[in-house]
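---------- Forwarded message ----------

FYI, see the Dienelactone hydrolase record below. Original note from H. follows.
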Amino acid sequence: MTALERWVHGTFTHDGITHETWRQGTGPGVVVIHEIPGMTPEVIAFGQEIVDHGFTVVMPQLFGEPGRPMSAGYTVKSLVRGCVSKEFTALALRRTAPVTRWLAALASDLHGSVGGPGVGAVGMCFTGGFALAMMVDDAVVAPVLAQPSAPFPFTPARSRDLGLSPADHETVVARVNAGCPVLGLRFEGDPAVGRRFQVLHDELGENFRAVEFPGRKHSTLTLHRQERGVRAVLDFLDERLR
């Protein structure tokens, strides 16, 4: 049995943009957004764990090849795609990636099909901040930011940037202040995250819940999986979606 054999393959289109999706499970909805280089076996295994915990999971395929293992060449190819595609904003400051509108629409569609108080969104690495941007849609009530790394922190300003336009930033902060918490995970020494966790603490206050691990590793939920982090995500989804 392949890793995706139990998943239902489909597509979702919004505003003229179409991406493949993979869906499985019953219960409240969660959108799991893969990291660079794509939907690796580790990402699929994490999605399966959320399904087995009692959720309906949709995994969109934004780039890469479903099920392909991570490698150096594959990672570089996906990084290039992230830098040149108009759907992403790997370098821009104070700008929301256009693909997050598609993701928010996907979350809203999932919520419409499963009901409940809302849906969760888990972003990782390059897509980590996308879960925050998806909060412009009220359907997203459980955003999880795993090592948010875009825009790439090449400068101090980029290392602090949350990947939100001024208008979206205002909307997100208002939703958080109204009682919607945000969960973040990272390794304390991960340079890819930059200074974003401090900015999130400063701007979101106690509604930003940080789960941090010692060391300079990166992928908290997949390649460098931390059991305490996975447990924190499942507990957060239970709290917000049950």
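H. also flagged this: The longest helix spans residues 99-114.
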